[in-house]
Design brief:
alpha+beta
Length: 80
């Protein structure tokens, strides 16, 4: 049985057109690789080691619009 890993929520600034594209890809079962890679890089930047691929959660309604990803991280590992 797999243990649940801690999760970090990442919000990435975007624009409306890109956000719509990411949502359409997600709904069609696809992946927007640039934003997924950016979410992973943000987790590393925060000093954590990703334990799995970032999962697209949705977008915010604010300005600027943000892409929201959840990323599982390894417990107790930080790189600062």
């Amino acid at each position: 049985m797999r243990k649940h890993m801690p999760m970090i929520r990442v919000q990435l600034d975007s624009d409306r057109n890109t956000a719509r594209q990411v949502v359409r890809l997600h709904q069609a079962g696809g992946i927007h690789y640039d934003s997924r890679d950016a979410a992973r890089a943000e987790v590393w930047r925060r000093g954590h080691t990703p334990a799995a691929e970032p999962v697209f959660v949705g977008i915010t309604n604010g300005q600027p619009v943000r892409l929201v990803y959840d990323v599982e991280v390894h417990l107790g590992t930080t790189h600062r």
